[in-house]
Amino acid sequence: MANKKLISILLCVMMSLVALLVPAEVYGIDGLTVVEQRVIAIFILAALLWITEPIPIWTTSVFVMVLMLLTVSSSSFAPFISADSYALAAEDVADGKPLLGNLIKYKDIMAAFADPIIMLFMGGFVLAISAGKIGLDGQLAKVLLAPFGTDPKIVLLGFLLVTGIFSMFMSNTATAAMMLAIMNPVFKSMRGEDGSIDRGVVGLAMAIPIGANIGGMGTPIGTPPNAVAMKYLNDADYLNLGVGFGTWMLVMIPIVLIIFAFAWFLLTKMYPFSMKEIKLKIDNDAFSNAPARDKKIICITFAVTILLWVTDRLTGINANIVALIPFAVLSVTGIFTKKDLSLIDWDVLWLVAGGFALGIGLEKTGLAKHMVESIPFGEWSPIVVMVGSGLLCLLMSTFMSNSASAALLLPIMYTVGQGMDLGAFGGVCTMLLGVALSASLAMALPISTPPNALAYSTGNIKQKDMATVGIIVGMFGFVLAFVVLIGIVGSMHIFG
Question: Where are the domains of the chain?
Fold first, then answer.
């Protein structure tokens, strides 16, 4: 296994070196500079490492950021910015030296890890960790599942909806892990004395990854691709739409609910229950035994934070700033401690930061502008480019991290969209949203998402079942998402 990973790393590095050393003319990009070609090579290396995963995907992001600091920043190794090796101005190119190009301020690259979107995610993690400490998550699950009774079909719907609600505000992975833990007694109760398992178990087990993956589409913090898309919608000079938390939910929640309804119908038909009744038993001693002070502070903070996120346009408080409120309150009150810091999903934060750094590289070096000027997008149908970008993201996300796929494609499609007439379809905004949603719709394999892997690990789902359901639900959601985005959101310019 170690040799296989080493070979994979070497192949990735070799492909990147080829991209770095081939003549600039090979790319067909007018005005391509040395720095821009370095960014292309780094981008290819990141893509290959993310796809093949010989090293954890978050370490690829860290490596990419360090590599950019050393080779394309204002603080690069001296030989990489030496006037003896490269031309510093266009008029010097005639002397036979390749044009060096625009170096990126090293502070801009390092600032990717302190991006406001990173703070948004950190606040979400703090909330989830604190809620788990007092058993609030289990208590909420108990309350939310109570109305669904004992009918197997309705219980399945309950797990689907509750998982989706949690994943809108919590890590999809943490949500799936929590819900699968709650379902363990249910799975055991559906086993016969002879060891046989009710076929409906497959549907129940599949409801968790579907609920987690699709539910994450409902809010800007539900999944990293959403957050990355929000960054371009709100921060990029070309768009700067000021899309709020509530506006996002207004558009995405209906899409999520329709997909849930379809998934529920599909699961009940493909994996019918033979038993007539399921009795749920959720013990939650943690909440009962938690200190009253801690419960009061966490519950109030949780409720106020979500309320401020949903009403950000009314209050005028940016969602990124709201995310830091629970961090401040819970740490000052001593509920969120130094030990709890280690529980934050730092790998996710580094992964997202690496994607931001690549986006900075594309923009600050001028590579994005040169790409737009060199590709004849005007000869292609806008609808083909828009839907094709979503399909590409869907395919990539099936075999690699959804976050990595979005981090790779969103900067490119943002650049591409600026060179096309997309007004009839809602502009660049629609294309970026399509790519972000497509990332969450990839759920055909156990490796597609962490919730898929967790559900598969229970042993209740075969890979062919996951592939069948994942492809059908994913393609239904894909078509629905683009119909809504182009036909309603785009035509009415809901996002601006």
Answer: 1-111+347-374, 201-274+376-496
